[in-house]
Amino acid sequence: MVVAAVICVLALALAGTVAYGWRTGAFDFLRGANAASGSGTGAKNAADGGGNQSLNRISSPKPDDSAAAQARRLVSAMSMTERVGQLVMVPLFAGTDPSALASTIQNDHAGSVLIIGNWTGGTASVKAAADQLQGYAPSGNRLIIATDQEGGQVQHLTGTGFDVMPSAVEQGAMGTDQLRASAKTWGSQLTAAGVNVDLAPVLGTVTVDRASNAPIGALNRDFGLDAAGNAAHGVAFVEGMRDAGVETSVKHYPGLGAVTGNTDFTAEGILDTTTTLDGSEIGAFDTAIRQSSPAMVMMSLATYQAIDPANPAVFSSAIIEKHLRGDLGYDGVVTSDSLSAEALSGYDATQLGVRMVEAGGDLACIGQVDYAEPILRGLNMQASADEAFAKKVTESAVRVMTLKIRMGLAQAK
């Protein structure tokens, strides 16, 4: 009787162990063996359906559908010429038929257009041009269409449908909530005109006599405040435009408030001797970038003696890669001020885009039509000859396409 009782207890314990192991999957290898031998298929499917689903979840992770991942897939399918094309913004001047850019967009794959000059026909005329330009672009990779709509003396688009924008100094006198609301209104007018990026606001802090500061102070292009005030108003402008569906580019990094020459028109008086990486002037930019994540940061064409005396900011890896990308962690699109400006007239035109990309920049803004071809040619030649440079082109194209995806201009298949 005792032996029988012991055997009974052992049998019950063994049965419990088997049941527990089967329930927790400890004997899954046995079910796998059954599947491999083709026996017991019906019973196996009924018993281990939950287990297989668990295994499938482990072995099949959800695809990365982030904008950056989509951009990498899109760029991987592009030829190098197509990638290079995403790195240029070509100009369309007022009075020029958009068909003048058809070949540049269709054959050279230019991915962005700058609406420049005095467009006085209102939102309807700009929208007609923008629509025609978009018609030349692939349906899955639409154009970034940008303009300089700062206010005051720098407002390229006027006429019916566009408010007369106050100067930035006048905007600086507004409260930040009021400025954000106003920027939303101005942005809605750009949206109605088919423009999706405003190359504004200016975040330079003027540290010299305003009248002598030709690019900014003399034109009232800054908010007219100290660095902290300029940063706060810059954030309000960026966020207001974004509220209207328009992205922005803060400019001209790391500031033009301490020079006397206007880089658009001269190569003289454009050496900044006071701006430092830990100073309040660059701090206005860095604060606004951290707080508002603008789509673009436009690089200055001036040279900064205390940071990189050998290169203008647009060609300075110390400023772009080390500080802006590294220290600040900015992963958006770094664009140039116009590479056709007088400040860069001493450089070979074919090397302008190359130097920008080598320094870590992404998008070559071109203000003169005849510069587009040599800049594109130089980029393509360097990408063909230099594998490391071609990799940089690819990285920049991914950043541009990431922005386009976020803006709804492109989508991975």
Automatic annotation (TrEMBL):
An example Gene Ontology molecular-function term: beta-N-acetylhexosaminidase activity
Keyword flag Lyase: no
Annotated InterPro entries: GH, Glyco_hydro_3_N, Glyco_hydro_3_N_sf, NagZ_Beta-hexosaminidase
Alphabetical list of Gene3D superfamilies matching this protein: Glycoside hydrolase, family 3, N-terminal domain
GO biological process: carbohydrate metabolic process; peptidoglycan turnover
Domain Glycoside hydrolase family 3 N-terminal stretches: 81-403
Key words, A-Z: Glycosidase, Hydrolase
PANTHER family listed in its UniProt record: BETA-HEXOSAMINIDASE, BETA-HEXOSAMINIDASE-RELATED
Protein name according to UniProt: beta-N-acetylhexosaminidase
